[in-house]
Amino acid sequence: MTDSRLMVRAWWRYRVHYRWLIATLESHSALGPLKFMVGAGGIVMGLITVLALVSHAGQNAPAGRAQAVLVVTMAAVWTLRWWLLPWPNELESLLWIAGVDLAITANNVMIQDRLLGSMGCVLLVVTGGYITIFHSPQVLALHIGWSVVSILALAAMMVHGVPGSTGHGKGDYALGMVAILVVLVVTGVMLPIVHFYNWLLRVDALSDPLTKLLNRRGLDSHLPRFFGRRCREGVYVVTLDLDRFKSVNDTFGHSFGDEVLVRTAECLRATASPDAIVVRTGGEEFMVVGHLHSESIGLIADRLRRAVESMPGLPSTITASVGAVEFEPDRTCDRHLTTTTRHLFRSSDSAMYRAKQLGGNTVVIADPQDAAPPLHGSRTA
User: Fold this and answer.
1) What pLDDT digit, counting tens, does each position of 107-164 carry?
2) Is residue 151 a contact partner of residue 179, using CB atoms and an 8 Å limit?
3) Residues 306 and 370: beta-carbon distance below 8 Å
């Protein structure tokens, strides 16, 4: 039960890296077809509104007709926006979601047949489905809250037969409960389940199966946290490669080698700052990326080196060659994220190989100008 609660808590706190997700879709040539399908949703929404407008059960009052024209116009703008312009940023995406939710509920309120209006709340699953892919659990919770408020209001209007009702469902509390439960099942139960398992599969794809650390794709998904436009704090990249790891496998066996990798991952997670990310980039190589927090890069890198060297309970001492680099974000790094990070990773990796050439169990700082004074077991490139 505790593990389940921790998993649900991790899901709730997970921050969907919107820009990385869009870039991933684009790298697989999936963004174009997805834009077409999302844009086509505007045509469907407009068509539903027009059909409701010409129906006797639809928006017959002047206010309802005006609202229908507004929604049809909004649906047309939606379609053109998605088909003709680049994929929206996260803020614009959220604004569109809010607008569509308002339009759906307004349509349902203006429909004369209250039963039809109540069942029209199922359309809110459209924006809910979009949220489950691109946005956080908190955004989904707000959407579900809006859906619940909408169906409660519309069911009450149907049961009490407020002005404009055709009489369908008037006084029928059981039918009102059916309408409420249908919407609750679709939006309040199914959407969170889909979002949770979508998150679980995403986390699994971005993690190393042995150590449970992030893998290279997971690293890429978290980089906007450190190099985004809002980041104004110094960032460090530390690359660690276990020394003479092949001899460890040859001497003690691959199962012991796997245990060393798992222990190293735990050690680095425990030593790194809570907001840092720890990555297994491949084989016996690890990377730690975090904020400096006014601490010198030399101290951070050497603390990680010493943590690996002092791992208890192993028949042989494990050491690591460590390369490190620091970076001060500016306004341009967000626009050149790939180029910036590629350069930093290359610098950190080169420093690590320099440390290995020096005999291992050594820290090498890639940038002499920003490096801290050499520590015990540390040297400067």
Assistant:
1) 888 887 777 788 888 889 999 999 999 999 999 999 999 999 999 998 888 888 776 5
2) yes
3) no
Is 254 strand, coil or helix? helix
In angstroms, rounded to a whole number, what is the distance separating the alpha carbons of residues 153 and 104?
A: 13
In single-letter form, the type of residue at position 256 comes to F
Residue of 241, 280, 213, 265 lying closest to 358 (CA atoms):
241
Q: How far apart are CA 211 and CA 262, in angstroms?
A: 5
Alpha helices for 85-172 (secondary structure H): 90-110, 114-119, 124-134, 137-160
Report the C-alpha dihedral over residues 197, 199, 200, 206, rounded to 10 degrees: 150
Distance CA 191, CA 199 (A): 12
Residues 190 and 250 in one domain: no
Query: Is the domain of 154 the same as that of 25?
Result: yes
Residues 230-273 pLDDT 10s: 666 789 999 999 999 988 888 888 888 999 999 999 999 999 99
The CATH number covering residue 286 comes to: 3.30.70.270
CB 132 within 8 A of CB 193: no
Residue that is last in its domain, among 179, 205, 231? 205
**β-pairing verdict for 235-242 and 285-291:** antiparallel
Rounded CA separation 81/36 (Å): 10
The residue type of 217 is R
Q: Is-above-0.85 flag for pTM?
A: no
90-110 and 124-134 helices cross at what angle (nearest 10)?
170
Q: What DSSP character marks residue 238?
A: E
Q: Quick one: CA torsion of 189, 106, 34, 19, rounded to 10 degrees?
A: -80
